[in-house]
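can u do me a favor
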């Protein structure tokens, strides 16, 4: 039997590696024979005070102990308020370089990884990391596939360089028809940025789906890399 694929997991805005691990327990169970999921936390601390931001939290989950009481993010779209909204158009962002450096360090220390999985802001960030890999700007990165759950194209002008050419890396795009945080049309807008993409659409909201009905799609995609 082939060894499990090692996948680096990139959480959503206002989450952290620990809380994302808790919230993807069903996915780990569903794919335990095929993948080993490794979690990391973003380097940017998110201010708790702002309730105005669109949260990247799963709408049907309760933070466990040590969960989302340490909210983190990968970049801020509002450089003054140090907050993020996927819908906010901005000229430049704050914190992306630190986040790329954190992933670089995770790959050095915990890698190698076969693939990378991201959720919400984390999925948008994964698309950027794949672009950096294909432009050969990050020699440490050697991801063979990407899974993007509730992903989207960044509305920040500074980030448009990541979408200049379709990416070759095989990708699985997962999104929910009832997602109120990242509507499915935002996830669909990311699809043309990937040449070799598969899609898993579920009827639910803003979470990583892991019902038995989804197992086959995940497994068929992952089989290509074992």
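np, heres the sequence
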């Amino acid at each position: 039997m082939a060894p499990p694929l090692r996948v680096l997991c990139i959480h959503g805005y206002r989450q952290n590696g620990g809380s994302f691990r808790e919230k993807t327990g069903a996915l780990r169970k569903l794919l335990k024979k095929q993948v080993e999921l490794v979690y990391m936390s973003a380097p940017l601390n998110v201010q708790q005070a702002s309730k105005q931001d669109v949260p990247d939290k799963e709408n049907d989950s309760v933070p466990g102990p040590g969960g989302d009481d340490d909210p983190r993010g990968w970049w801020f779209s509002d450089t003054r308020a140090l907050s993020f909204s996927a819908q906010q158009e901005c000229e430049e962002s704050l914190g992306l370089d630190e986040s790329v450096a954190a992933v670089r360090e995770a790959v050095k220390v915990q890698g190698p990884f076969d693939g990378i999985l991201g959720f919400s802001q984390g999925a948008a960030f994964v698309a950027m990391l794949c672009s950096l890999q294909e432009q050969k700007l990050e020699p440490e990165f050697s991801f063979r596939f990407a899974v993007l759950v509730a992903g989207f194209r960044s509305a920040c002008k500074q980030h448009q360089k990541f979408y200049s050419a379709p990416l070759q890396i095989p990708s699985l795009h997962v999104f929910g028809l009832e997602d109120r945080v990242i509507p499915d049309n935002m996830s669909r807008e990311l699809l043309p940025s990937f040449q070799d993409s598969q899609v898993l659409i579920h009827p639910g909201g803003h979470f990583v789906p892991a019902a038995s009905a989804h197992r086959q799609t995940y497994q068929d995609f992952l089989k290509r890399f074992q």
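The first strand starts at residue 5 and ends at 10. hope that helps!!
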